[in-house]
Design brief:
The protein is an alpha/beta fold. It has eleven helices and 17 strands. The two termini are about 20 Å apart.
Length: about 300
């Protein structure tokens, strides 16, 4: 069982922009003076350059064009509403912002099931009616190999739904509390944590409870990961929002943004380079206005091809 996917799905935006509904608890988003048209143009340019960079390294990318209507400013971040597991599951998740729930597209799920073998399709969306949310691999950092799911509890990550999802797939949920330097709950686990095959990047200082912090750290080490701690400043630069993938030849790359790699120290980069090949991409507009980085843009496909 591999921790690292060799196929990823990405959604090319049709109406990318600032989402006021998600800004309620995403402190990473910033409004802009640019027009919607200018923002969309820049986002598409960054997106196309990103996918080109991946394809030049022989990383398989399935690009799905976002539908123009209804307007979906965050459609570029598909990892929040669906994920795939190596047991053949295709899962759809309950989303916090009502205007993000319209991102869930049956045609896209159909595309996946036509190309890949799925054992089961699950829809956890019914929890939205109870205002309970679990936003895919934004909420959950999944260690596929060791059947563990790490998650910091927040308005977007409900512990009950998390534990039910983990139990349904034979995983163990490792829930903890994570706060930023201002004491605000971290909205998504994937801004403070990333797990590769043999390394784990994590902002340990965001886990204020010492018992939880030690437990998470020890579990990562016990499962064969070199722990690379990052600071709050590096979290702000999206250094926690990286993702390890592999190309068609099995070569491993860790994708991260230009802003993230700039924030890393030489020592951190040296350690990461031992485990993986660092592959930075420039998505400044998407990061600034959307409040998400590279990891949020890539939905891993762990399913077997038909």
């Amino acid at each position: 069982m591999s921790q690292v996917a060799s196929t990823i799905l990405m959604i090319r935006p049709a109406a990318f922009g600032f989402n006021a509904e998600t800004a309620a608890n995403n402190v990473f988003q910033s409004a802009t003076s640019l027009s919607q048209k200018q923002v969309q143009k820049k986002a598409v340019e960054e997106f196309d350059a990103f996918t080109d960079t991946l394809r030049k390294k022989n990383i398989e990318v399935i690009v799905v064009q976002d539908s123009a209507k209804p307007l979906k400013p965050d459609a570029i971040f598909p990892n929040n509403w669906f994920c795939t597991l190596q047991d053949g599951t295709l899962a759809v998740f309950p989303m916090f912002a009502p205007n993000r729930r319209i991102e869930k597209r049956d045609d896209l799920l159909k595309t996946i099931t036509q190309q890949f073998k799925t054992r089961d399709a699950e829809d956890w969306s019914e929890y939205e009616a109870e205002s309970l949310f679990l936003e895919g691999t934004g909420s959950m950092i999944i260690d596929h190999e060791h059947k563990l799911i790490y998650a910091c509890i927040s308005p977007r990550t409900n512990k009950v739904v998390l534990e039910k999802f983990a139990y349904a797939h034979g995983f163990r949920a490792i829930a903890f509390s994570s706060k930023d330097e201002d004491g605000v709950e971290v909205y998504h686990t994937n801004v403070i944590m990333s797990i590769g095959e043999t390394y784990a990047v994590i902002c340990l200082e965001s886990i204020k409870d010492e018992t939880e912090r030690i437990a998470v750290s020890q579990l990562l080490i016990a499962t064969g990961h070199e722990v690379i701690p990052i600071t709050f400043a590096q979290v702000r630069a999206y250094a926690g929002n990286m993702l390890q993938v592999q190309n068609s030849k099995g070569k491993k790359f860790t994708i991260l943004s230009k802003q993230a790699i700039k924030s890393l120290t030489k020592e951190q980069k040296d350690i990461l380079n031992i485990h993986s090949n660092l592959l930075p991409v420039d998505i400044t507009t998407i990061e600034t206005i959307g409040g998400g980085s590279v990891r949020c843009m890539m939905a891993e496909i762990f399913l077997e091809k038909k």
